[in-house]
Amino acid sequence: MKTATPNTETVQTKDIQISVLFKKMQKDDKKEVLMFHILTDETKHAADLLKLTGKMTILTISDDEGPYEPIQAEFVNLQRDNKKTVLKFNVATEDVDRVNAIYPAAGTNISLLIQPQQMSMEDIEDEHEA
């Protein structure tokens, strides 16, 4: 009789560089919410973006003046309609200084580098509690 073995294979995703509108920053009780709109047809990245949903990422935002410091964020969700794709990220409040530094870029078109991170949100919370 065969027994089911859990799939422990990790999903390999690559870094994703896309042009987006940095739509908004919103403060919540325990986190900052960052929203980006992809206004162009970025279907070449669709599969990789879907693989990253729900995972921890490292975001690097670049504008005309260069890149900002990378920010650790959970890729919460991806929503599509016929006009745009919305990317939503949660940033822990421990990175508040880095988040405040990117505030001037809000509302502008930027280059967004999304890199997969090996830690989960629970791992990071456990690390901060220790």
Overall description:
With 130 residues, this protein is of the alpha+beta class. The chain has a single domain (16-129), classed as Elongation Factor Tu (Ef-tu), domain 3 (Beta Barrel), CATH 2.40.30. Helix content is 17%, strand content 43%. The protein contains three helices and seven strands; from the N terminus they run ββαββββαβα. It has helices spanning 46-52, 96-101, 121-129, and strands spanning 16-27, 31-38, 56-63, 66-67, 71-80, 85-92, 109-116. It has a six-stranded antiparallel β-barrel. It starts with 15 loop residues before the first strand and ends with a helix. The relative contact order is 0.27. Mean pLDDT is 82; it is low at 1-11.
Q: Which bin fits the share of residues in helices?
A: 10-25%
Following the backbone from N to C, one meets helices and strands in this order, namely: EEHEEEEHEH
Cα gyration radius (Å): 16 Å
Overall 3D shape: globular
